[in-house]
């Protein structure tokens, strides 16, 4: 009986010690958590949107994990002329667990979005950063001009049915339902644009496949 009581005490104690040791070894394992965002929202909510090639990187020893400073060759600026005239460096946390983003050096052109603090451009995993070659034609057109036409609109995520728009400036974003995740068809091919009547609706524009204009509330 004594041994049974000891085992009942030891097992929960070992479980607690295991959990504590896991937390101590990996205190920031799941620290970075980002809400899903449509590329248009990422564009509208960013201070800076550029296309650039990363040509160098340097770890700056500031803070417990440091900051990674990427040197970029800016190809084009789509947004941020009033903040920075030309972007030379991109700053991000060195640790991915703290939402630091990793760029390949001298390999790809990237679309990079971020915020400006004290004249420096910062980005992270919660910003929209993607290899330029992986963007769809609609996303490239959105970045060039369409997304800015919808910055007064609100893209409303729909995670569970039923979902409804509650005002005329909303577009219902249903990628999470029909594609079981992100990115989905609306993210890759549609922009939420304000129409002449004041209503916002999904806009696809010209498609090389069907050569038609699709303008619908729920594509």
Automatic annotation (TrEMBL):
Question: In which residues is Zn(2+) bound?
Answer: 32
Per the UniProt entry, the signal peptide is 1-31
Top-level taxon in the UniProt lineage = Eukaryota
List the GO terms this entry assigns under cellular component, sorted alphabetically: extracellular matrix; extracellular space
Its annotated compartments are:
Secreted, Extracellular space, Extracellular matrix
Predominant localisation class: secreted
Gene3D superfamilies noted in UniProt: 2.40.50.120, Tissue inhibitor of metalloproteinase-1. Chain B, domain 1
Q: Which InterPro entries match?
A: Netrin_domain (IPR001134), TIMP (IPR001820), TIMP-like_OB-fold (IPR008993), TIMP_C (IPR027465)
Matches recorded under Pfam families: TIMP
One GO biological-process annotation of the entry reads: negative regulation of membrane protein ectodomain proteolysis
Q: Cross-referenced CDD domains, in alphabetical order?
A: NTR_TIMP
Q: Disulfide bonds, which pairs?
A: 32-99, 34-126, 44-151, 153-200, 158-163, 171-192
Identify its protein family.
Belongs to the protease inhibitor I35 (TIMP) family.
**Which named protein is this?**
Metalloproteinase inhibitor 3
Q: Which organism is it from?
A: Lepisosteus oculatus (Spotted gar)
